[in-house]
Specification:
By secondary structure, the chain is mainly β. The chain has 2 helices and 6 strands, in the order βββαβαββ. A hairpin with a 5-residue loop joins β2 and β3 (53-56). The longest helix is centred in the middle third of the chain and has 6 residues, at 73-78. It is globular and about 35 Å long. InterPro entries: PPIase_dom_sf, PPIase_FKBP_dom.
């Protein structure tokens, strides 16, 4: 995994999806993430509409570890099934991210695109 670099997220043409869209960029061969697992990941997040990056563990220079059940629905449902060493893109409509506009989060109402590298599962 040490040879991976921060992914570039290509602009996605067309209308934003209304359901979670999960695409494996690279399939891993390690342990598989299960619902509710504790995962260690590197990720980049961009706004679907603008392509503007809003968050990246790569920019902080370190991966992050957390329980899946504490995350947005798109991650809770989009990461299980991934194997360590894999890279997956998740396109999360508002219902799968931070909810509808006016929901109190700065990204409420936005469709978000994440590229996630699964580094570990506990």
């Amino acid at each position: 995994m040490a040879d991976k670099t921060k992914p570039e997220i290509d602009f996605i043409e067309g209308p934003a999806p209304t359901e979670l869209v999960s695409t494996d960029i690279e399939v891993g061969d390690g342990a598989e993430a299960t619902p509710g697992a504790r995962v260690t990941v590197h990720y980049v997040g961009v706004d679907f509409e603008t392509g503007e990056e809003f968050d990246s563990s790569w920019n902080r220079g370190e991966s992050i570890e957390f329980p899946l059940n504490g995350l947005v629905r798109g991650w809770q449902e989009g990461i299980p099934g991934m194997k360590v060493g894999g890279r997956r893109q998740l396109v999360c409509p508002p219902a799968w991210a931070y909810g509808p506009a006016g929901g109190g989060h700065r990204l409420s109402g936005r469709t978000l695109v994440f590229v996630i590298d699964l580094l570990g599962v506990a």
